[in-house]
Amino acid sequence: MPWNPDQYHKFQAARSAPFEDVAALVTVRDGLRAVDLGCGTGELTRKLADRLPRCTMLGLDNSPEMLAKAAPHARDGVRFELGSVEDFAAGGETYDLVFSHATLHWIPNHPQLFPALLARVRAGGQFVVQMPSNFNHIAQRLVVDIALEEPFHTWLGGFVRYSPVLPIDDYAALLFAAGFENITVFEKIYPQVHETSDGVAEFTKGSVLVPYLERLGERGEDFMQAYRQRLRNHMHGSPVFYTFRRIIIAGTRG
Ligand SMILES: C[S@@+](CC[C@H](N)C(=O)[O-])C[C@H]1O[C@@H](n2cnc3c(N)ncnc32)[C@H](O)[C@@H]1O
Fold it and tell me: Which atom of ligand 1 is nearest to the CA of 100?
């Protein structure tokens, strides 16, 4: 199962909740050249572009399925392209705004990745990103626990994914080291209320579970069953309150 736009959209409100906090950190100027890394289905890319007068916005994503949904959000000045964040980080022209919403936690080695991305911000330009930092929540720790147990460990060929997200202080330090000013880095809880823990499992299915379900194919439902069962033991009753933690990072190149 690669990225599934329909599964992802089931929780659109919860997934786009941090957008306003992140967008509020973007300094609106005329004619910005901007890029949205991991633009997904493109709604938020377009929403941001519509707030930046006469900007040119490039939405980049490495999932053809997500980009197919993004296509209708293209307009004059807003385009979408298939491409990886890693290739973008390898170098090229600079931008007035490097933006990313809920994507960079999919890419490893942040001590190396972030300086490379920051290098693509031009003088006076901004770097503004948001990433989940929820990896210590039981809903995510259980995914790793189950992946390490049989028969899943064998079915997954030993695959386990650990979050590459660093403590928030480290991002502030990386921005400072790259010569950034007006550094803003904070963590915020975006609460979710689900009828039962199965709702949390369904939310996780559209994000953290994607690489596991992709590898498991038809055996994915066995993993989901084990996950739902285990989650019920930890998140009882109804409703279930899920504290979803995210990091927001912004800075301006001096
Ligand atoms: C959680 S979605 C976020 C989409 C959108 N930014 C939003 O907030 O709705 C993560 C997106 O990152 C993309 N992605 C993951 N790894 C990537 C990579 N290495 N390069 C480019 N895109 C990537 C996925 O295809 C997916 O569309």
Answer: 6
